[in-house]
Amino acid sequence: MTGDAEFDDGLLEEELRQAAAVLDPLPPALLQIAVDAYALHDLDARVAELTFDSLVDAIPVRGATDVPRMLTFTAGEVTLDVEVTAEGLMGQVLPPQPARVEVLGGPQTTAPLTADDLGRFTTATPPSGPFALRLRTGADVVVTEWLRA
């Protein structure tokens, strides 16, 4: 198969998706059911509680603009510190340990991030809209509460 044929297949698929969206749109209730069902696929995961949010808990600094949002989540012994900016997201798992971190945004996730031996991770893609983080450390899975960026 040539590269042109693959491109045409992709173009045809996209046109069919657009036509289906116009002629037979997905009912909002069905979309919500799908999102709720997706959220249950980590039913064994521990939920990390939001223990600090700089939008709520920090004292505003006069004249400061475009201040990063600082978040702290806690689940048992695991703490996740996260800084959200317009340039991306960075964080650290405490106690420091290697981990895989996924930024959830509805039914799709971004590419998994890898936390180094000190538990640090970054992404140059800021979350848009509601988001949560899924952290995998060994056998443990921790999911944060959903927040708006």
Question: Which key phrases capture this entry?
Answer:
149 residues; alpha+beta; eleven-stranded mixed sheet; 3 helices
Ranges with pLDDT <50 over ≥5 residues? Answer: none
Estimate what percentage of residues fall within beta strands.
35-45%
Order of SSEs, N→C?
HHEHEEEEEEEEEE
- The pLDDT mean sits at 82
Shape: globular
Q: How does the helix and strand content classify structurally?
A: alpha+beta
Give the biggest sheet: 11 strands, mixed
Q: Helical proportion?
A: 10-25%
**Annotation, overall tally of beta strands:** 11
Radius of gyration: 19 Å
Helix segment count? 3
| Separation of the first and last Cα atoms | 43 Å
What's the structural blueprint in terms of helices and strands?
Elements: H1 3-23, H2 28-39, E1 46-53, H3 54-57, E2 69-75, E3 78-85, E4 88-94, E5 99-105, E6 108-109, E7 113-115, E8 120-123, E9 130-137, E10 140-144, E11 147-148
Parallel strand pairs: 1-10
Antiparallel strand pairs: 1-2, 2-3, 3-4, 4-8, 5-6, 5-7, 5-9, 9-10, 9-11
